[in-house]
């Protein structure tokens, strides 16, 4: 099987490529990435060194560029598309929603049309629990929970989800949509909560916490998420939607306090700041369907997974420093320039 993985230089895409190449020796991957600020080819330099030209190759481009997508599909015998490519940061979407509509909605439509035109056997679309909106103190998101997005980011992902559904219902395209809770783990870009708080804690800087810190998220280790996506690719029901969670609900304040404990810093560094607009109060996933149909179950407890993640950042100071300084962009320019 040859997979086209979009957004493979991002956080979850990087981990998925690593997982697939490690556990499926018969699979090869074409990584198609725009290399935005959050796409870092340095995440996969060792993979290219080990598998480049054989089981791994890279293609630079934008999923919203129909000509580029057609070109790639014509040159590679693709058996399935796994679409991780997306603008994902809620705060950025509040500042400017345009890139989110372009990539998340239009880009998904371009990929779907190309998959339909080329007869690609399977299309797996990676979505988010945020399309469901927010929960009260009780209850869980199920796959049949109505979509009720509350931010420009989540609205763009909901739009993409509905486009995937439409291509299955209208054209019979074999699609599977996955929705996951908050991811954490290696290679996460440091604008997200856990790496951001780790960086500030180790630097002895104040840790900004939105509102009262009581917003609840169900945390899933990225390795558990990647196992779920592979299961959906291989076993998912055509047209199906599957939730993946970590069974690890924690308030943002609990997460920040645990990071401070793991880094040996005082809780006096916590600073409560004005809440962001439309901040959903609680997410939590019911993954009973994925467990029943795919055999999915999370393997990482949050405490152990977070400790391992902090250890990874400690052991990869150079990676984190290059991302923080923007030096990885210079690497990216050289890396891509060598391939022009």
UniProtKB/TrEMBL annotation:
Superkingdom as given in the UniProt entry: Bacteria
Keyword set, alphabetical order: Lyase, NAD
Cofactor(s) of this protein: NAD(+)
The UniProt record lists the keyword NAD: yes
Recorded catalytic activity of this chain's protein: dTDP-alpha-D-glucose = dTDP-4-dehydro-6-deoxy-alpha-D-glucose + H2O
The enzyme's E.C. designation: 4.2.1.46
GO molecular-function term, one example from the UniProt record: dTDP-glucose 4,6-dehydratase activity
A biological process from GO: nucleotide-sugar metabolic process
Boundaries of every NAD(P)-binding domain copy: 4-307
Keyword Lyase carried by entry: yes
Gene3D superfamilies: NAD(P)-binding Rossmann-like Domain, UDP-galactose 4-epimerase, domain 1
InterPro entries, sorted: dTDP_Gluc_deHydtase (IPR005888), NAD(P)-bd_dom (IPR016040), NAD(P)-bd_dom_sf (IPR036291), Sc_DH/Rdtase_CS (IPR020904)
Record family assignment: Belongs to the NAD(P)-dependent epimerase/dehydratase family. dTDP-glucose dehydratase subfamily.
Entry protein name: dTDP-glucose 4,6-dehydratase
Species per Swiss-Prot/TrEMBL record: Nitratidesulfovibrio vulgaris (strain ATCC 29579 / DSM 644 / CCUG 34227 / NCIMB 8303 / VKM B-1760 / Hildenborough) (Desulfovibrio vulgaris)
Gene that this polypeptide is encoded by: rfbB
